[in-house]
Amino acid sequence: MSRILFCEDDPTIHKLIRVAMRNSEHEVSMAINGAEGLKLAREIRPTVIFTDASMPDMDGFQLVDAVRADPDLSATPIVFITASVQRADVEAALRRGASHVIAKPFTVSQLHEVVAEFS
Question: Which CATH architecture does the domain made up of 3-118 adopt?
Fold first, then answer.
């Protein structure tokens, strides 16, 4: 069983993720921002982290930097979930250490495909 961590501050997206993952065989944890996500990541050692790019307290870019700097987490794949699909933003996420980028809005099917790819 994979451990999947989602970091997302939007309640609607939170609900979509919970509904999409409710019958999965994965252990799913949710955080409302990057700071909470980093704390959870250090506790549960997820197989993959999904993070929104824009969140309060610690955004997705800061989370990627912190995860990549932590020797215990540095190899963890990180998938950005972002409303910005500008090529420059996607390239910036990948340069910072994201493994993949999903554009909002996304479908449950798209989410499942990416979860399967990284878990």
Answer: 3-Layer(aba) Sandwich (3.40)
